Every structure is written in structure tokens, then in C-alpha cells.
Amino acid sequence: MSDLLPTDSIVPEHVAVIMDGNGRWARERGKARHSGHRAGVKSVRATVEHAALRGIQHLTLFAFSSENWSRPAAEVGALMALFVEALRREVAELHRNNVRLEFVGNRASLGAALIRKIEASEARTADNDGLHLIIAIAYGGRWDIAGAARKLAKRAVDGDIHVDDIDEQMLGKDMQFAGVPDPDLLIRTGGEQRISNFLLWNLAYAELWFCDTLWPDFDETEFDRALDFFARRQRRFGQTGDQQEVAEC
Ligand code: IPE
Ligand code: IPE
Ligand code: MG
């Protein structure tokens, strides 16, 4: 285990991760892309365990985006089968470790077997009060915002709310992450420095940390580097640095 972090370090409450680079990891080894996705499961396990160890309360992992549906059918099929298999293998251990598992994304677009696994794993771990692990599958930030707008429009048409009362809080309550604090830290592996339609609404004030490490090579040491970067940031939320220093005293 890495000793990079002092134990009294400032730990983010919510960490979100764009797990990128599986395909390139496989290509570097002359293997098919799906073997990179399979290798990525090990990094998921290590990341979940390390998040719990470090006292992070919410961990969101981006596993499949709305746009990933446009990949070749064979890769999409392999990913969906891998999600089912990973849930079959991992949920008992997650449950033993007191992890509460939840899924966000367009669930209706998924296959019946995966939906069954998702619902069963959510129900089984619902009363756990350890790490809150959120997996985003078939998720897109724009899809999430549009869905909330649709719900508010319907309530306005039905006369339940007045259009002039719509504000940020109201919209946020109709989004997938309602009740979950915004991510404090976003980690993206794989070298790209973009959001790729992940949490467009919720990342408003997240600290962004990008690394070249491909997802199957991501481990505790790399995670601690991101946490160390986070601990050194002064978050100002639009205020001045001086105001923050007064607030910290
Ligand atoms: C991330 O790895 C996993 C998914 C998007 C499902 P990629 O498959 O995007 O890997 P690269 O970016 O092609 O290396
Ligand atoms: C983002 O990675 C989605 C996930 C990690 C699930 P992509 O590989 O799909 O992102 P782009 O296409 O490079 O922006
Ligand atoms: Mg990618």
C-alpha cells in the first residue's frame, strides 16, 4: 500500500472516475479490445477497496456511456456480458464489505439479464452503510439533464409546479444523482483530458485529475496520487482565496 498520503489528509467525499484506456491496453499487448475490458475489472476491485480504506463515502464509476452504444456490436455485446458476469462474481464480496451498490443510466435500454442483476444487487446491498458505489451504465450527462427537464415540464403542464418556481435545486432533484453530493474529485485515466458527456451538471466544482495510466494499470498508488493532488487544492467556489482562508480558521 502507498504511504503517499498522511492519515489526516483532506479526503474527498465523492470521487467520480472515467475508466478509460482498456482498448489501448489490449492493443499494446496484441490482444482484442474485450480482453482490456476484462483486465479492467481488477482495477475496479482495487479502486473500490481503496476508496473504502481512504474513507471516501461515494464512488461513481463510468462504465458505459450513452455514446458507447455506437461501438461495434461485438464489443458492446462483450461489455454487456462482462457486466452481468462481474455482478455475478463480485456482489457477494461487496455485500460482505458493507458496500451499497446503485446504478445510474438509461436502465430501460439494457438487456433483461443485466437489469435483473442490477435490481438484485441494489436490493441485496440497500441497507449497507459503508461505501456508496454508483456505477454509470448507458449514462450520459445530456440524457440526465434532458430527463429532468422532461419531468419538470410534465409537472408544470399537470399544474403541480409553477414554471417561475423552477430553479437549480428543483432540476437537480429530478436528476439521477438526487441526494448524492456533487463529486469533489474527477479522475480520468487513459490520457484524454475531456468529460465525454459524463456528469455535466454535477461536476460544476469538481477538481479534475487526468493521468496517462491506462485503466487496467490503475492501482492504489495512482489513486493516492489523485487524492494527494486533491488534498493540495484550495477550493474557492467563486469566492476569493482570502475568504476561504478565513473560513478555514
Ligand atoms: C473505456 O476504455 C471503457 C469503455 C468506454 C467502455 P476504452 O474502451 O474507451 O479504451 P480506449 O480509450 O479505446 O483505449
Ligand atoms: C468515456 O470513454 C466513457 C467511459 C469510460 C465509460 P470513451 O472512450 O467512450 O470516451 P471518448 O470517446 O474517447 O471521448
Ligand atoms: Mg476510450
What is the fold's blueprint, element by element?
Elements: E1 14-18, H1 22-28, H2 33-53, E2 58-65, H3 73-96, E3 100-104, H4 112-125, E4 132-139, H5 141-157, H6 168-173, E5 185-188, E6 207-210, H7 220-231, H8 241-248
Parallel strand pairs: 1-2, 1-5, 2-4, 3-4, 5-6
Average pLDDT works out at 96
Write down the overall geometry. globular
Radius of gyration from the alpha-carbon trace, in angstroms: 19 Å
- Strand tally is 6
Summed up, the helix count is 8
User: What gap, in angstroms, lies between the N and C termini?
Assistant: 32 Å
- The share of residues in extended strands comes to 5-15%
Structure notes:
This protein is an alpha/beta fold and 249 residues long. The protein has helices spanning 22-28, 33-53, 73-96, 112-125, 141-157, 168-173, 220-231, 241-248, and strands spanning 14-18, 58-65, 100-104, 132-139, 185-188, 207-210. It has a six-stranded parallel β-sheet, with helices on both faces. Strand 3, helix 4 (112-125) and strand 4 (132-139) form a beta-alpha-beta unit. Helix 2 runs parallel beside helix 3 (73-96) and helix 3 (73-96) runs parallel beside helix 4 (112-125). The relative contact order is 0.19. The site of one 3-methylbut-3-enyl trihydrogen diphosphate has 10 residues, from helix 1.
